[in-house]
Amino acid sequence: MERIRITFEKSGAMRYTSHLDLQKVWIRALLRAKLPLAYTQGFHPVPKVAYSWPLPLGWGTKGELMDIWLDYPENRQTDEKTFIQDVNNSLPAGLRVLEIEKLPYSDPALTIIIQSAVYRIIFPGVKDVREVERKMCGLMEMDKIERERRGKTYDMKPLIEDWSVGVSSENEVFMQVQMAARDSAMGRPDELADALGFDPFAVNIDRIKYILKK
Fold first, then answer.
1. What is d(CA 213, CA 200) in angstroms, rounded to the nearest whole number?
2. Which pairing describes strands 204-212 and 60-70: parallel, antiparallel, or unpaired?
3. Are β-strands 160-167 and 152-155 bridged in parallel, bridged antiparallel, or unpaired?
4. Beta-carbon count within 10 A of 167 CB
5. Helix axis angle, 80-90 to 19-32, nearest 10°
6. Which of 22, 48, 54, 190 lies at a CB distance of 3.0 to 4.6 Å from 69, suitable for a disulfide?
7. Measuring CA to CA, how many Å separate 43 from each of 36, 39, 46, 55, 69?
């Protein structure tokens, strides 16, 4: 049995696909690609697939991760080029496999080894990169950045690990920010945008990549 880690991107109309529906899309695509998926045990076996942290509706991703387990016949292994081509041919527009990696079967789960995530926040309509930089510097000078989530107050500041501001090739002002992404400490770039004084529903957010525990 093989364990494969897939790195993929989600863009376009797929940004508005819920995490639950995305799981269904992936299973259908993997079956259409005729991959020998391994199944769980029990009365209702399902394909053995593990996903990273769910993305909120409307967010894109350039480096999302998922693990799948394959049950090939003896002496047969995954060919990377064929795998990517077959799966991409089975996926809808807006989903694309970027690369795969073979892993030891018993490696820790994704949600255990993910430490941080890097996001890109694009601020439509903002022309002055210094405006965003000035606001962010002011925010980081505060002793605490108090926010409320699910009725509880928390300090966002320790969740912000690194950040930079720039202008894209499309002349869009953006911030790239690395935030904690653990079950007990989950940074939210939309809440950061709100703390900066921007409408969190008006900015565009992509998860660029994960930082994994070594």
1. 29
2. parallel
3. unpaired
4. 13
5. 120
6. 48
7. 20, 11, 10, 30, 19
Core vs surface per residue 109-120: b (16+ CB within 10 A) or e: ebeeebbbbbbb
What the chain holds in terms of domains, given with CATH numbers, is: 2-107 (3.30.70.580), 115-212 (3.30.70)
Percentage above 70 pLDDT, the chain: 99
Nearest to 120 by CA among 209, 208, 55: 208
Q: What is the pTM of this model?
A: 0.92
- DSSP letters along 72-128, please? PPTT----HHHHHHHHHHHSPTTEEEEEEEEE-TTPPPHHHHEEEEEEEEE-TT---
Q: Tell me the pLDDT band of 212, cut-offs 50, 70 and 90.
A: very high
The vertex-21 CA angle with 114 and 150, nearest 5°, equals 60
Percent of the chain at pLDDT exceeding 90? 83
Structure tokens at 97: 């496999």
| Phi-psi group of 89: left, alpha or beta (phi > 0 → left; psi -120 to 50 → alpha; rest → beta) | alpha
User: CA of 6: how far to CAs of 12, 140, 170, in Å?
Assistant: 20, 35, 29
